Structures are given as structure tokens and as C-alpha cells.
Amino acid sequence: MDWDRVYDVLVVGGGNAALCAAVTARQAGASVLVLEHAPKAFRGGNSRHTRNLRAMHTAPTSVLTEQYLEDEYWDDLLRVTGGQTDEELARLTIRATAEALPFMEACGVRFQPSLTGTLNLSRTNAFFLGGGKALVNAYYATAEKLGVDILYDTEVVSLQLDDGFVRHAEIISRGFPRRVRAKTVVASSGGFQANLEWLKQGWGPAAENFLIRGTPYAKGRVLRNLLDQGVASVGDPTQCHAVAIDGRAPKFDGGIVTRLDCVPFSIVVNKHGERFYDEGEDVWPKRYAIWGRLVAQQPDQVAYAIIDSRSERLFMPSVFPAIKSDTIEGLAEKLGLDPAKLAETVRGFNAAAGHGSFDNSRLDGCHTEGLTPAKTNWARTIAVPPFSGYPLRPGITFTYLGVKVDRNARVLMDNGRPTANLFASGEIMAGSILGKGYLAGFGMSIGTVFGRIAGREAAKHARN
Amino acid sequence: MQETETTEEARRALEICNACRYCEGFCAVFPAMELRREFATGDLSYLANLCHNCKGCYYACQYAPPHEFGLNLPQTFAQLRAETYAEYAWPKPLGAVFQRNGTVVALISALGIALTLILTVLIQDPTVLYAAHEGPGAFYRVIPWWLMTTLAGGTFLYALLALAMGFRNFWRDTGSSLAGPAGPRPVATALHDILTLRNLGGGGHGCNDRDEAFSTQRRWFHHAMFYGFLLCFASTSVATVYDHVIGHPAPYPFWSLPVQLGTWGGVGLVVGTAGLIWLKVVSDQAPAARNLLGADYALLGLLCLTSLTGLLLLGLRGTGAMGVLLAIHLGIVLSLFLLLPYSKMVHGLYRSGALLRNAMERHAGHAPASD
Q1: Where is the domain boundary, A343, A370, A395?
Q2: pLDDT number for residue B370
Q3: Which end of chain B is more exposed for a tag (fewer CB within 10 A), N or C?
Q4: The domain containing residue B114 runs over which residues?
């Protein structure tokens, strides 16, 4: 490694957005260095855990059915964000997803028809064959073939900004502090969801009990560094996307298998054995994010979903087996709950439940009467042993705080002026477009689209 | 089959896979897995034998080592397959040969060659080995007709019986979920899957033959080997009919049907087995099951030797080298026949069975009874 070399483009990060930027810049003739914090085996950031990309299309393609037009896509985004978005950047992103698939295929990303799963997304989302890690592998292979230099185990500590111009990057590469210079820099180093200390600033000590669904390398170090140097921020600094997942998941990187879809057919109690929210408010894909927040607000950030044997097969299980017992009291003991209290909660629920006929395939209106909080759908009694329990914890997917960019992916300063040679793509700037909520496959859309824009603009700037 | 550490690990792996399902586009294993929530040992055996070891799922896996889940499905399945080979072997005690299969196959092959040479020398005048022989029945002047047919026919019929019993064991063990015989449509689907190696397609883009990159080399080498083997078998069958039915004994001229079939089949076998050995040598060892490499190399080597000595025999049959070469070639063929039920060769049997069961499941279009 020639540490004195001045690259045209330095890409900070190693996920989808970073690789799209690196490949695009290299294809435009720029020399490119990618710095990935993770070791090779864990490269790819949270892209490793993704599965699909939401793509606009005016006619059916090999992997997408019917059509999905700009206005419908925009409406979907508007609904989940409640208006916390930037229409210009959002529509630009949406339109560009129409050209994303051919680019991805040219980079060796392979798609599959969507087959199964709890969400039916075959019209709106293109599924990667083998998932996000296969996509990441394809991009790295393409980048290597094109002559992009890649350093793993290399963390960027600081980008030295001087009046909006990045002078150099301070890095730690395989344990050694180094300095790297480049004509332009693309920051694609993700959010700060794996930084528990930072999460505590928004959530207090409760954040200690959060599980991080994705990469442990998303510490937000570059994001913090840039914001501290006067770069404009977007997004609520305290907010993160949290879903309720199996409480037995590993602290980091548990990914998709820790999801738990049983809540609508269960009662959920906190560590005191008390219910705290309507479990049957809506279908699970529309409620799992709310439940992340709800569990985070409970004592010790833990809750327990309890079902009876009739509901065992109504949902996709998590990877961990259900905790079972023939009695509610026995189950409470295994879960570490007060047996008498849990039995009382279940008795109270059963006495109020069962108004209407149960049908797991739709919002059945089967509800409780005279119970607080009510359960408004699928309120069938918890009565047929064996009973199953699953612990729930908040699983953090991503954070919303980011740097502000313009339509050319150029990072903006607090005073509204553009930086001279700094671009951003991916989660580090996604808060501009997705300021709240979540839309399946849209993070990959933003990363791919803005990665390509950042790569193109950085290369153009460096070559001028 | 019985529970072992491997079945336990395979179950743990499949329970992770079944909660993830990102790999469902790769091959038949994952859609078959998704039909189940619990995995009995028979289900594990079925899925392990359905796996074509394309390794796509390993390189795509977010839970592969060094992730703490440490998922390595191709390796786990390969180890489990080896256990199923021992489990279903007939007669049962001979399942032990799958413990150190590379050594056993190599030893039996060496013994086969030695035995043929020794028997020839004992029964015949030793000089037949070195003299040139020509004309109809030349081969029988080296190894007498009765010996050749007794050994070849006897070992082959025994192998067929042992293979059939092994298949029966596999079918019973994995068949709890489906009743009744296979209909014509599942059989046709299974045949198509077997003959095209559809599941070595990685969803149409190739497999991870060597590493993260995709290729179709393994599929084509296997085709060369498989169809080469079939051509050689056809050659032997035609020659048997010529000799025993129409009284026209070998050797046959180069342009005759048996020699043409055997020559091209032999070439296919050499190319296919050499290619597969090369792929094994250069491929990433991380998803490989090291304890099975012996069995793999031994069978590939034996098949390669069978065809090489056959081709050499063809080339040199007019010279004094014919006698020794014939004895060696027949010794190897004898070993191959004997080892059919006790070598990696059985993978074809159980793979075909798993593909047939899979075709039945797909045509039935419903979850098995265990779900």
C-alpha cells in the first residue's frame, strides 16, 4: 500500500452505497480507494442483511410484476414518513430506481422471483438471489475487477475539513494510524445504530438493553466527526427504527432470523406480567416497528408474548424455540415472571376475549370487551395447552440522523453552502429522504441511487 | 436413521435457514425445507441428499463463520450424507466401509488389479500376459471366458442387489410424509432434474464451484463424467449382446459400435473426472467436508483409471502389452463393480431418490403430513 498516493476518490465505508459509488467512479476513470471498517468476512455493513430493493417500473420486468409508478411510490413514501421527507430528493431517487436494476445486473447482482415470506412484495421490490450478502459479494468482485483498491479492517477516524474542503482522512488501518489523501471523498459509512453510548443520548440507560439487528461496525464515527465540523444535519438525532424481535437474539448481527411474528395472536406482558398495548391493532408488518418502541418503554426493555397451542403455526417463528409449559404458571416460572400475576392477567384476558369469530387470515374483529388495554383483533382466549412464550426486545435497525446533501450528493454545510469535495451516499444521508418510518427495500434504493450519483459526481470533480 | 451430532447440527442449521429463507432461489433444498417446521432425521437425510453441494448458500450466508451462528450448510450436509451412506448400506455391517472410504476404495482397487493378474498367471500359462494376441476371442486367450463372465456378472449382479436394498432403506427412512408410489409426472420431473443437473444451476447463473465467483464448470465436468459413464456402460452392454447372443466375441474393430461408444465414453470419463479432481484441488476448502475428500478422490480416481486403462488397452491391443493391460483394466472394472454400493457412487442413487421425492412433493403441491 502506497500511503503517499493521492487517489481521485476515497470512499469511506463498504456497504451497498459505498460500493455503488466506488464502481461508478472507477467506471468514470477515477482511481478509487475503499476503506471498510469491518474485516472481509463481515464486509458490507447492513447491506449484508438486506434482501430487496424497491424499484419503480412502468412495465413488468424479469423479476417485477405489473407496474409501480412514480406517484404511487411517492404516495407510499409520504404515508410512512408522515411528510418527513424531501420531495425533490425523494422523486429523484424514485425515478432513478428505474435504471438501478440494469446497473446492478451489470455488476453481477442476480435477482430471483419472490417466492415466499410474510410480505408480498413481488410487484414493488426486486429480490436479490441469496440476499444482501450475495449482492455485496457481487459488488466487491466487480470493484476488484475494475481495479478499485480496497482496505478491510480500516476505520476512518476523521475527515479533516478546512473551509468545506476535505484535506485528508485520519484512519486506523489494521491497527496502525495512517493518513490518506484524495481529491474527493464519498462518505458512505452508515448511521450510528451500533453505538450504544450515542443511543443513550436519546434513550437514556434503556439503550443498554437494545439489540442491534445489523453490523456492529455502524458506530457513526464519521457522521459525528462531520457534524462536529459544521456539516448540516438532517433527521431527528434521537430517533431510530426499532422493531420487536426475539429477546434471545445476539447483541449484534442477528439479522432476519430474530424476527418474531406471533404478537397479533398473543397477549404481550411486561416483566410485571401486565399487558400494555393492543396486540391486535393491525397486521404485523404494519405494527412491528411500533412494538419496538413499545417494548423499549417497558421496564428493563423486555416483554413476553404468550400464545396457546392453537396459534403455534399461524406465524413465521424466530430461530429460537418457543418456551413451553402445560400451565400458565409453569410458563411464567420458565420466563421469570410472577406465576400468580401472569395467571391473573390471562384469566382477565380470557374473560374479556372472544367476541367475534377468529380468522388469522384477515383483520377479524374478534375483540375483547371491558378490558384495558383492549385487544381489537384476533382476541381468542389463551386456553389450550401447551402454552408458548417468547421474550421480546427492541431490535435497532437504523438511525435517522444524517448529513444533508443536495441533488448531486454533495454534502452541505450548516450555513447552506456546499462542501468543496465531499459527497455522501447511503444511510449517512438517508434521513433527508426517509425522515421517519420505514418502507421495505427503500434503504437499498437510496443507497444505490445516491451511491451512483456520488460516485459520478466525485469522479467528475476529481478529474476536472 | 438415528440421531447423531451431525443430525443435531443439521437440524440447528435448518432451523436458522427456515427463519431466514434468503437462499430459496438457489436450489430445490430450500423450498423443500420451507414445507416443514420440524425436521425428523428422515427429513434431514432427504434434504442432505437433495443438496448438490453447489455452495451458493454458503457464500450468500450472513450467518456463515465467523458469525457466532457459524452456519456452513454445504459442509454439514456433506457430513450428513456420509452418515446416510453408512446407514443405508446393505448388508448393514458393510456401512463401516464409509468410515474411511478413500482408503477402502484404494485398497480394493489395488487388490482387484493384483487378484486379476495373479489369477491369470495361476490359471493360464504366464506367457499369455506378454504375447501378442489377435482376432476374435483374443481377450479370452488371456483371461478365459468363464472366469471373465463369472466375475463380471457375479459382482455386477451383487452390486445391483446391494444398491437396490440401499435405495429401499433410503426410501423407507425418508418417506414418512408421502404415501403411495411415484406417478409418471413426478418420475419425468425427477429424470429431467437428474439428467440436466438442474439444481447445479444456482437459479440459472452458475454455482460457486471454486469460490465466491460463479461458474458452470462443475456441472459440465459432471455431465462429461456421467454421460461418459453411460456410454461406457452402453458399450459393455452392446458387447455382451454381440458376444453372448450373436456369438461375435471381442475385440471389435475401431469403428464398431461397442468401441465407438467405449472410446467416446472413456474420453468423457477422463475429461470429467480429471476436471472434477482439479476443481476439488483448487476450490476454497471452507465449505468442504474434509473427512469426505478421501471418498471423493478415490471414486474419481477409480473412474479415471477405468477409462484411462480402457483407452490404453484400445490403443495397444495389437501389441504385447495387451495381456497385462487387459488384466489391469479388468481388475479395475471388477473393483468398480464391487465398490458400486460401497463408494461415493451411491450418492447418485440417493440423490436420484431425493429428487424423485422432491418431484412428488412438488406435484402433490401440499405440505407433507408432518407439518
Answers
A1: A395
A2: 36
A3: C
A4: 90-364
Per-residue model confidence (pLDDT) at position B136: 82
| Statement: residue A337 has pLDDT above 80 | yes
CATH number at residue A151: 3.50.50.60
As given in the structure block, the three cell numbers for residue A391 are 421474550
Predicted confidence at residue B176, as pLDDT, reads 59
- DSSP assigned state of A382: S
Q: How confident is the model at residue A93 (pLDDT cuts 50, 70, 90)?
A: very high
- Helix (H), strand (E) at residue B236: helix B217-244
For A318, the closest of B19, B56, B60 (CB atoms) is B19
Q: Name the grid cell of A123.
A: 410487484
Name the pLDDT band for A19 (thresholds 50, 70, 90). Answer: very high
Regarding an ipTM greater than 0.85, the answer is yes
Whether pLDDT at B371 is above 80:
no
The string of pLDDT tens digits covering residues A368-412 is: 999 999 999 999 999 999 999 999 999 999 999 999 999 999 999
Nearest chain B residue to A127, by CA: B22
B171 by Cβ neighbours in 10 Å (0-12 / 13-18 / 19+) ranks as: middle
Q: Chain B interface residues facing chain A, Cβ-Cβ under 8 Å?
A: 15-16, 19-26, 31, 34, 37, 56-57, 59-68, 202-203, 205, 212-213
Give the nearest chain B residue to A256 (CA atoms).
Answer: B20
Distance from CA of B21 to the nearest CA of A (A): 8
Please compute the mean of the pLDDT values over residues B78-95 and round it to a whole number. 95
Same domain, A313 and A228: no
Are A136 and A174 found together in one domain?
yes
Q: Which domain covers residue A46, as residue numbers?
A: 6-236+400-463
User: Chain B: nearest CA to A48, how far in angstroms?
Assistant: 6
CATH of the domain at A330: 3.90.700.10
Average pLDDT over residues A294-308: 96
Q: What angle do CA A325, A330, A336 make, to 5 degrees?
A: 110
Per-residue pLDDT at A433 exceeds 50: yes
Asked if residue B124 belongs to a domain, the reply is yes
Q: Cell 424497491 maps to which residue?
A: A54
B188 to chain A nearest CA, in Å?
24
Residue in A1, A414, A418, A446 with CA at minimum distance from that of residue A188:
A446
- Does residue A191 sit within a domain? yes
Residue B102 lies in a domain: yes
Structural domain tally of chain B?
A: 1
- Selection from A379, A376, A375, A425 nearest residue A402 by Cα: A425
Which triple of cell numbers denotes residue A44? 458490507
- d(CA B371, nearest CA chain A) in Å: 9
Does B257 map to a domain?
yes
Position B3 in a domain: no
| A361 and A439 assigned to the same domain | no
Does residue A205 share a domain with residue A100?
yes
Site from B38, B62, B67, B210 to mutate, A interface, most A CB atoms within 10 angstroms: B62
Assess if residue A1 is contained within a domain. no
Do A175 and A118 share a domain, yes or no? Answer: yes
| Packing angle, helices B73-88 and B5-20, rounded to 10 | 140
Which of A395, A427, A454 represents a domain boundary (last residue)? A395
Residue B142's closest CA among B156, B155, B158, B125?
B125
